[in-house]
Amino acid sequence: MLMFAALQFQIQLQSNLPQPDLSPSGTQETDDIDAALNDLQMSLEGHTFGRRPGDITSIPELQDYLRFMKPKKYTMKSFKTYWFVFRDTTICMYKNRDSANSAPLWNANLKGCEVNPDVHISGKKYGIKIMLPSPEGMNEVWLRCENEQQYVKWMAACKLASKGKTMADSTYDAEVSSLSAFMSMQTPSPALAIHSSQADIQPELFVARRFLKKFKSQRMAQRILEAHANVSELSLYDAKMSYIRAWQALPEFGVTYFTVNFRGSRKEELIGIAYNRLVRVNTSNGNVLKTWRFNTMKAWNVNWETKHVIINFEEEDVVFYCTSADCKVIHEFIGGYIFCSMRSKDSSQTLNEEMFHKLTGGCA
């Protein structure tokens, strides 16, 4: 929250200053923004455009001691240290380094899982929460790293693996760099870049009201300035791009929620639709109960008479009635995301309007 407020404040400050024209024609900045947005999309989707040098004959892997916990209801458990090996999209856990050649105590293929950060920098907490899909729902495991350097490497590997990509993918190094930059913006700075007496900050313009209820306005302004010290050197362009990257790094980025009734149930439940998956959410705590990936979808259609959405996945069929929107909206979301996934990166690609209307306007 404070990082977003600090970036908005820096953008506000830089907007009042003259900005350099990066080229005589003035088009260089636009080209850079387009290139940066393409890089962000590439990172988000996990596409592979090539392999890094040296990866042709060997597959990169991570090996290190991490702390592990598999939480269970009504049971208090603590983290225990184990030796972990991450190769391809699979993570394996061993009792210690010497037992790495034997059968693992636990292992999981992370393709299709949910990966979320559990980080508190001031408390030196560098955690990774992994939600693994199973027939019963989502199984949760927690990993805890010792430091920031270890965290960014393992987090980047887990995020790519969830998309079916390995550390040999060209986006791995970019993901590590992005996570490192994201962490550095949250690290407390030893000194303020602007003293509170020199800045007229209105906290209500930068943070949500619920946070203002916890802190007095003057204290909140001070905390924004403390966070701003980490981003005070950013140009207008860099501040905007950092804001976009931070926004896209949020666990719930790009997820649109709807209330629905699943077939055979009168209870209202919550589903979320993202660019690559459909999630079933616990309405009481917001935890993901089940994830269905679009790449396992065989077909989907709508019963326009009963207003039921019917989605056929490889593992099961999902049928529900949307109570918060017309079923056509759900159909358009799914069809639109499927259409976007079919598009290439070629900017000169002709829009296939017939396919777009077929996917978003009729039965598939």
Structure description:
With 364 residues, the chain is of the alpha+beta class. It has 9 helices and 14 strands. The protein has helices at 2-15, 28-45, 148-162, 172-186, 209-212, 217-228, 236-248, 327-342, 353-361, and strands at 61-69, 80-87, 90-94, 106-109, 114-120, 125-134, 137-145, 256-262, 269-273, 277-281, 288-293, 297-303, 308-313, 317-322. The strands form 2 sheets. A 7-stranded antiparallel sheet has the order 4-3-2-1-7-6-5, covered by helices on one side. The protein has a 7-stranded antiparallel sheet with strand order 11-10-9-8-14-13-12, with helices on one face. β5 and β6 form a beta hairpin. α1 packs across α6 and α8 (327-342) packs antiparallel against α9 (353-361). The longest helix has 18 residues, at 28-45. The two termini are 41 Å apart.
Outline of this structure?
With 364 residues, this protein is of the alpha+beta class. It has helices spanning 2-15, 28-45, 148-162, 172-186, 209-212, 217-228, 236-248, 327-342, 353-361; strands spanning 61-69, 80-87, 90-94, 106-109, 114-120, 125-134, 137-145, 256-262, 269-273, 277-281, 288-293, 297-303, 308-313, 317-322.
